[in-house]
Write a structure and sequence with these properties.
Layout: H1 21-39, H2 57-72, H3 78-89, E1 99-101, E2 110-112, E3 119-122, E4 129-131, H4 134-141, H5 160-163, H6 168-179, H7 187-210, H8 217-223, H9 226-241
Length: 242
């Protein structure tokens, strides 16, 4: 760890940048470039070959967060259980790709340089492991679907084109170009999985708040309102894929 002097953007719309649409585009492109670089790291060469279990990442993660959700469930939500069933039944075949996965890759977990639109640090690695790189890409692309006004730091409901923010299709295409990937089959699965993962995380936080063990009980209880919304968003991706 070391101190780095830079900028942290809490607002995904980057309103702090005023009318500078080019700077906004460059911020998003820098995040994309950094993610592609992270996923291109040779884990064995940097001594992280045993940082996590290789292979079957989505199967293991779906099982983990399903157990987390069931252990923390307060009120039965049939949509969440339907999402779990669908993920288990539509698991893509493991393609053997393994990389460092950050686990919570989003704008406010990064520090940007003061004098240029470059990422100089990525923060909050507590969910990091070895896993499938598409987990990080899909997790960030959730932001295009999450509401902007709800405190969930999403891009939904704002005129992204007017702000110079790339579309999800552009963002994914840039990542694929940087990683040498032609296309991403089963994209709705990865998005639905990420919505479900976030549902499991928030359900656990909410249960800890009810049990008196949360670090910020008020915030945890507020985030409980997002749980059914996330489940519905996952189901919307599932229906879109059918």
């Amino acid at each position: 760890m070391e101190y780095l002097d830079g900028r942290i953007f809490w607002d995904p719309a980057l309103n702090d940048l005023g009318q500078d649409n080019q700077a906004r585009f460059e911020i998003y492109d820098a995040m994309n470039q950094t993610l592609a670089k992270l996923h291109s790291v040779d884990v064995s060469a940097v001594g992280l070959g045993d940082f996590g279990k290789p292979g079957s990442y989505f199967a293991r993660q779906t099982d983990r967060w399903a157990k987390q959700y069931r252990a923390s469930e307060v009120e039965h939500n049939p949509t969440v259980h339907a999402v779990i069933d669908w993920l288990e039944q539509h698991m893509p075949a493991d393609d053997g790709r393994v990389s460092i996965v950050h686990g919570d890759y989003r704008m406010d977990n990064m520090i940007f340089a003061h004098d240029r639109q470059d990422v100089i640090a990525v923060l909050d690695w507590e969910l990091s492991t070895l896993g499938h790189p598409l987990a990080d890409l899909a997790y960030q692309c959730m932001q295009w679907r999450l509401p902007y006004q709800s405190g969930m730091r999403g891009l939904g409901g704002i005129d992204r084109g007017a702000l110079g923010i790339p579309t999800e299709e552009q963002y994914v295409a840039s990542y694929c170009r940087r990683r040498g990937i032609e296309s991403i089959p089963d994209w709705p699965f990865y998005i639905a999985f990420c919505f479900f993962k976030l549902t499991g995380i928030l359900q656990g936080v909410y249960k800890r708040a009810l049990d008196g063990n949360a670090s910020n009980p008020k915030r945890a209880k507020e985030m409980a309102h997002a749980i059914p919304l996330l489940a519905e968003a996952a189901m919307a991706e599932i229906k879109r894929s059918s």
